Amino acid sequence: MAGRTVAVVGATGAVGQELLSVLDQREFSIGQLRLLASSRKNGRTINFRGKDIPVEAATPESFEGVDLVFSAAGGSVSKELAPKAVEAGAVVIDKSSAWRYEDHIPLVVPEVKGDDVASHQGIIACPNCSTIQMVVALGPIHREHPIDRVVVSTYQSVSGAGAGAMLELGAQSEAIVGGDDPEIDVLPRQIAFNVIPEVETFRPEDGYTSEEWKMANETRKIMHAPDMRISATCVRVPVYRGHSEAVSVEFSEPVSAAEVREILSGASGVKVVDDISNGAYPTALDAAGNDDVWVGRIRDDVSTDNGVVFWVVSDNLRKGAATNAVQIAELL
Ligand SMILES: NC(=O)c1ccc[n+]([C@@H]2O[C@H](COP(=O)([O-])OP(=O)(O)OC[C@H]3O[C@@H](n4cnc5c(N)ncnc54)[C@H](OP(=O)(O)O)[C@@H]3O)[C@@H](O)[C@H]2O)c1
Fold it and tell me: Among this protein's residues, is 234 annotated catalytic?
């Protein structure tokens, strides 16, 4: 659809800014681009492909004539505006958690079940960043050897909590190095020189956080694996970009680390870096700024006959957010 009109809601945010660079890098065809944010950013312009485009306040009337909306402004904004955009005739690719658990809305990671896009009725949901990178690795393994159980611990960068959290890490680090008390505002505890086992809000009914609950439920929906048992512990670490995850998978029959390594070596979107004899394994810094899901430290789980353990790293703003959304648009 050359000449399509595209709107980005949340264009000034961490994901919105990355969306604009991914759209440009992937030479996504755009006739007209509308940049929308809160009314706080009125009067600001953002340069895209050599043109200064004004940032407008997003309202229910913003979508007239728009064909495609990337929605990256949070759940409550999406709940209000996405239906208005669909009424106006647009398809909405949504980054928030507002629509992910509705049965009639596909939740899509193109490498895993890309065909799900075809069932959309106007809105297509993108999973949470920590879920996306995990399922890109789990998907090809599960196709060959059905996975029974997953236990995952995450090490999530501050950009996963938005542009404000990135500023907070910098400001706290400077304050501490300068001998001042750090100010705590966006994240629940001091993040500089610390790790925080609280990503999003606690659920009183089971003690998990909503991020941990999302990783389990989104994975089951994306992979069409309603019976997969999943337990997650999500942790924020003082890293700017790139989430890391230690993943243990358990099968109903023995599967070796060598088999998993071979499957992942040929998997779409996965880059295996796994040569401990030469000290080769991926870190968040390796993944920052690119689209791959990097996997290393693949080894047999010594605590069970049927398990394999590995390390998964990806840039949460790229494959975990912007790139996944643009890949969905390309599928459309
Ligand atoms: N960060 C990640 O790694 C990641 C990954 C996957 C999914 N997500 C999801 O993506 C969404 C955006 O996250 P983010 O990290 O980019 O957050 P962010 O950096 O805080 O950006 C939020 C964006 O939403 C805009 N906004 C806020 N209130 C608005 C309103 N009432 N109307 C219109 N726009 C409004 C902000 O505009 P102003 O600049 O005007 O305030 C800004 O552009 C969230 O739902 C998040 O859960 C994030």
Answer: no
Residues 6+ apart with CB under 8 A from 226: 220
Q: Given the residues 120, 142, 145, 243, select the one marked as catalytic.
A: 243
Confidence (pLDDT) at 3: 81
Q: Is 73 in the pocket of ligand 1 (CB under 6 A)?
A: yes
Q: Is 96 in the pocket of ligand 1 (CB under 6 A)?
A: yes
- Residue having the nearest C-alpha atom to atom 14 of ligand 1: 162
Q: Are 249 and 304 in contact (CB under 8 A)?
A: no
Residue 114's nearest CA partner among 19, 26, 223, 35 is 223
Say yes or no to pLDDT of 1 above 80. no
Cα 160 to middle of ligand 1, angstroms: 10
Selecting among 126, 129, 142, 234, the annotated active-site residue is 129
Share of residues in the chain with pLDDT > 90 (%):
97
- The Å distance, Cα 38 to ligand 1 centre, comes to 10
Distance of CA 319 to the CA centre of its chain: 6
CB 311 within 8 A of CB 260: no
The mean pLDDT value for 234-261 works out to 97
Residue range 201-238, pLDDT digits in tens: 999 999 999 999 999 999 999 999 999 999 999 999 99
> pLDDT tens across 111-151, in order?
999 999 999 999 999 999 999 999 999 999 999 999 999 99
Q: Is 237 left (phi over 0), alpha (psi -120 to 50) or beta?
A: beta
| Residue 41 confidence class, pLDDT cut points 50, 70, 90 | confident
Looking at this protein, which amino acid is placed at residue 213?
Answer: W
The CA distance from 128 to 325, in Å, is 11
81 alpha carbon – ligand 1 mean position (Å): 14
126 catalytic residue (yes or no): no
Question: Which residue lies with its CA nearest to atom 47 of ligand 1?
Answer: 96
Q: What is residue 42's predicted lDDT score, i.e. its pLDDT?
A: 76
- How many Å lie between the centroid of ligand 1 and the Cα of residue 257? 39
Judging by DSSP bridges, how do beta strands 51-57 and 45-48 pair with one another? antiparallel
